Predict the structure.
Amino acid sequence: MSTSHSAGWSRRSGRLVASAVGAIVFVVGPVGVATAPASAAPSGGGSGWSIEATPNHMEPTGALSSDSCPTTTMCMAVGSDANEPLAKLHDGTIWTDVSPPIPAGATASTLNGVSCPSDMACTAVGSDTSSSGADLPLAEVWGGTAWTVQNTPNPAGATTSSLSSVSCASPAVCVAVGGYTDSSGVSSSFAELRTGTAWTIQATPNPTGTTASSLFDVSCSSGRACMALGNFSDGAVTNATLAEVWNGKTWTIDDPSSTNGQVDAVSCTSATHCIAVGSRGTQLHLPAAFAEVWNGTTWTKQPIPSPPPSLLTTLTSVSCLSATSCTAVGYYGDMAQTFAAFTETWNGTAWTMQTPSNFNLGEVTLYGVSCPSASTCTAVGNAYVNPLVEVPLAEVRTGLAWVVQKLHDPKGVANNSLAAVSCPSATACTAVGERFRSSAKYIALVEVWNGTTWTFQSAPNPSGAIYGALDGLSCPSSTDCTAVGYYYTNGSQNPTAFAEGWNGKTWTVQTTPNPTGADNSSLTGVSCSSSATCTAVGDYVNGSGNYVSLAETWNGTTWTAQSTPNPTGATVSYLTGVSCPSATDCTAVGTYAKSSGRRVALAEAWNGTTWTIESIPNSAGAKSSSLAGVSCPSATACTAVGSYTKISGKSAPLAEMWDGTSWKTQTTPDLRGAGSSGLAGVSCPSTTACSAVGYAGSDVLAERWNGTEWRVQATPDPTGAIMSAFAGVSCPSETACTAAGTATNGSVIDQTLVEAENS
C-alpha cells in the first residue's frame, strides 16, 4: 500500500523543508467554505474536497483581577480575556466558566472587582468601551445561574470613567468606587451606591488643592460603614494616599497623610478595624510592600517581611476574617527581573510570609484573595507562559499549603497543527502533529477518524521532554501505526529524534538511535510496508556541524540507524519523505545545498542493502528546488512533490516521476496570481492516480494526476482563516483521499485542518 509522508512545517530553526512557506504561521477558524484561487480554475475531476470538523485542544487565556468566596465551596473570580469580561465559578472542586455578557453597543469590556455576600448573589464592576472609544462604568449581577448587566450612571461631565472595586454588605446594598476624567483632562474619584437594583452617584470629597484623584478599593463591614482607599495629587504631593469613610449617608476624608505610597487594597472587619496594603517607593525608587492597620482613629504601619532575594515587592489584595486573621497576596521582582507570587498572613501581632506555588511557568502575579475561613483562602491572578501568552491562575490554601488549581478552559484557543495523515481505509485515518500546552510548551498531537468523527488519542512525549512534535506517520492498518518526530529536553537547544508506535490500544514511545557524533537529530517521514518493517528518514548534525541525511529501520522490536550517502560537496542535506512498497525497496526525497546555498532536490533509493543517490532533474528556469513528499505504488513507479523557486523569487509546485529507470519532471499548473505555492505531500493508490497537496499563496492547494496530467482541484478554506495549508495527504483508494494541515484564524492562532475528497 502507499501512504503520504510529509515533512510538515517544523518549528525547528535552520530547516530547508518547505522553505517557501517558512514565513507562514498556520491556523483555523470555524468550518466553512471558500473558493479556490481565481487564477487556477479547478479542473481535476471528482466531487471536490470538503472540510471535516477536527477537535482542537484548548488552553486558558486571560487574567483574573479579583475574587470573592462567601463559603468554602463557592468562589467567584473575575477579570478579562481579549477585551471581553471573564468570570469563573468554583464549587469547591472545579472551576467553570460563567461568561458575563458584553453590554449592548460596547466594543470591549473588563471586570475589575467582585463581591459576593452569599453563594447566590455576586456583583462585579469594571468598565466597557463605547463605539466612540470612551470608557463607561460597568456593573453586572450574578443571580446563581447567569450574569445580568445593570444600568450604572456616569459622573456629570465625565468623558471616560471606570469602576475598580465593589463591596456588598448584603445582596441589596453595594458600594463601588473608581475614577473618571472630564473634558479638561482632570481625573477625579467617584463612588456609586446600589440599593435594590438602582445605582446612584455619590459625592466623594478630595483634599484641598487636589489636581487628580482616584479610588482603587473599598471594603464595607456593614451598609453604614465603608472604607475606600486610593491616591491623589496636588501641587506639592504626588501619589499620596486618599482615604475616605462612608457612614451610610456621606463620604468624609480620613487623614490623607497617615498613609502614603500606592494603596491597592483594603479589608475591614468592623468600623474600627481595617487593614490596607500596597507599595511605597524606596530610596532606590523601587516599590516595597507595606501594610497599615486602622483602629477607627489612626493608621499604624506594620513591618512586612520580603521574599529573598527581591528587588521590588507589592501587595495587591487583602482579606480579613477578624482583627487577628488576615491574608495578603502580591508579587515580587527578583534579580533576574522576573515576577513571582508571594503571600503574607497576619495573626494580630505580626505578618508571616508564605510561599505559594509559582506554577513553574514564566512570570506569576496574584491580584485578588478571599478567605471564607481561617484555614481556606483562594488567590487569583495570572501567569505568563511566555512573553505573549497570559493565562489565568488560581491557587487555594488549605491550612498552610498553597496549591495551583486547573481553571476550566474558556473560549480562548491554543495552537494546534497537523503535519501528516495516513488512512489504511476510507473509514480509518490517523493524523499527527503538535499542540500547545502551557505546562509543557508543544507536545505530540494525535487525532483519529472512524468514518464519522475525528477524536483525540493520547500520545506520550519522551521522558523529560518539554517540547515534542510528530512530523511523519504511516499506518499499515487501523491497529498499527508508526509516527516519528523530534523533542527537546529541559535546558537543551538541540532536538532529538523519536518514534511512537500504536498497537490498537495505546501509543508507546520507541527508542531511536542517534548516529555516532550526532549533535541533534530529527525524523520527518516514515513508511511501513508491514507492522514489522518501517523506514524513517530525517537529518542530524554531524561532528563538523553540518546537517546530513538520516535513515533508520524498524524490525518490529528495535530501530537501527542506516548509512545514507550525501551529495558530493553538500554542506547540508535533508531527507523529508519516504515511501517503501516493500521491505527491500524504499525511495526517500529531500533537499541538499552546497556552499553557494542553492537548494537542489534530492532522491535516494534503498535496495535492501544500501542507499544510493538518484539523479533528479531541475525544472527549467529553476533557481532552486526541494522535495517534501513521495509515494511509490510499486518499485517502478514513484511520484515525488515539492517546490522550486523561479527567477522571480516566487515558488511554484514541483512534481517528479520515477519510471523504474530515471526521474522526469512533470508539468504542474502554474497558479498565476497565487503568489508563492508548493506541494508538501502526495499519495498514489495506483500508477495512474495521485493526489498532491500543499499551499497556494495563503490558501490550501490540491492537485490530481490522472495518468496524463496534473490538474488543480477545488479546495475550500475555513471561514475566518487568514492563511491555510495542507501538510500531508493519504488516499486509500482512487476515489477517497484525506488531507491534513493547519489554518490560521484572525487571532493568528494555529488550528487543525482536515479535508476529504470522495469522487
Notes: The longest strand covers residues 158-170. Residues 19-58+413-758 form a domain with the Methylamine Dehydrogenase; Chain H fold (CATH 2.130.10.10).
